[in-house]
Amino acid sequence: MGFCSPVCKVLRRGKYFVLLFLSLSVLAWIAAFSGETVKSFQVSSTTTETLVKGDGLRDKLSPWTAAPDHLNTPTPKGECPPESPLLQGAVKLSFEPSLKLKDVESENKEVAKGKYEPTDCTARQSVAILIPHRSRERHLLYLLHHLHPFLQRQQLHYTIYIIQQAGVATFNRAKLLNVGYLEALKDYNWDCFIFHDVDLVPENDHNFYVCDKQPKHLVVGRNATGYKLRYKGYFGGVTAMTREQFLQVNGFSNTYWGWGGEDDDLRIRVELQKMTIVRPPTDVARYTMVFHKRDSGNEINKDRMRLLGRTPKVWRKDGLNSCSYKTLSVERLPLYVNVTVDIGKP
Ligand SMILES: *[C@@H]1O[C@H](CO)[C@@H](O)[C@H](O)[C@H]1NC(C)=O
Ligand SMILES: *[C@@H]1O[C@H](CO)[C@@H](O)[C@H](O)[C@H]1NC(C)=O
């Protein structure tokens, strides 16, 4: 190739220009990249910030996968303090005849479907409140009115369940509470259960609605009895047992129809398991009993002494494991879950 036209010479020189341009581009690119790295080192001088920066990079690379990641990450909430800062001690209770369910609902906007949990900390226990019920709407209203704010001041995660006995057969508080335990566990694996009469309103929020290492009896005194324990060994009105404690005693007996005996039966079950009953101090375990006449359909159970005599022999077979019932409806209302059941008749 002895001859080369001027055109050819230009092309040959052009080749060097292209090479030079490419090398300059590579250099420029390296310079820009290292500049970025230096910048990110300046911003993220600590390990945490480096992690955050890494997240930021991932965001830039694939925002559609990174974004949901951020939404699902729960904001870390600490456990609520051992004693809530919201407690008020003894409060004056009111029982206004003009009170309406709507009023109680608007006072408790944070409660939905009977449930509440603190927003700024994680509750120390999750508690199901079980209230056996039939035609005591007025008492229930007063109780809800006081109990919701009371439980919220204690910073608990809780749901209130009303166990409504359908039909007109004699009332059976104990069996309704067994049903409540079984039904509430379908919603959530509650740590603690409070078995609560509808006509007892707690007066002091230092009476904690949580469970202990031993079964707990919360009603030491009520205004109707001069705030004295009704009798030694009394275990009625309001009691607290963990999920395991209640299972261990096989729950309540299902055989107490009418008023009385079922709470003593539960005490015998607890004692047979070598558990001991604990109580809060007298000055806080105080209740107001809302006045009422004995209900028809809840007459005194004359058979209760005979039944109590056979408890040690029958408790294994009569209780949670033999509780048969038919759930008629489960209504999730703003302030409580209404579980209506057919529990049969004596
Ligand atoms: C207890 O207090 C309630 C509510 O104030 C009242 O209706 C009831 O009569 C009181 N009982 C006694 C025995 O004082
Ligand atoms: C519970 O639901 C039943 C059936 O709908 C109803 O008759 C009863 O009044 C309800 N009880 C309460 C306390 O809401």
UniProtKB/TrEMBL annotation:
One of its GO terms (molecular function) is N-acetyllactosamine synthase activity. It comes from the Eukaryota. Its cofactor is Mn(2+). One of its GO terms (biological process) is carbohydrate metabolic process. The keyword Manganese applies. GO terms for cellular component: Golgi cisterna membrane; Golgi membrane. Residues 80-212 form the Galactosyltransferase N-terminal domain. Keywords: Disulfide bond, Glycoprotein, Glycosyltransferase, Golgi apparatus, Manganese, Membrane, Metal-binding, Signal-anchor, Transferase, Transmembrane, Transmembrane helix. Pathway: Protein modification; protein glycosylation. It is a single-pass type II membrane protein. Residues 216-293 form the Galactosyltransferase C-terminal domain. It is found in: Golgi apparatus membrane. It catalyses: N-acetyl-D-glucosamine + UDP-alpha-D-galactose = beta-D-galactosyl-(1->4)-N-acetyl-D-glucosamine + UDP + H(+). It is an enzyme of class 2 (transferase). Its EC number is 2.4.1.-. Belongs to the glycosyltransferase 7 family. Responsible for the synthesis of complex-type N-linked oligosaccharides in many glycoproteins as well as the carbohydrate moieties of glycolipids. This is Beta-1,4-galactosyltransferase. It comes from Scophthalmus maximus (Turbot).
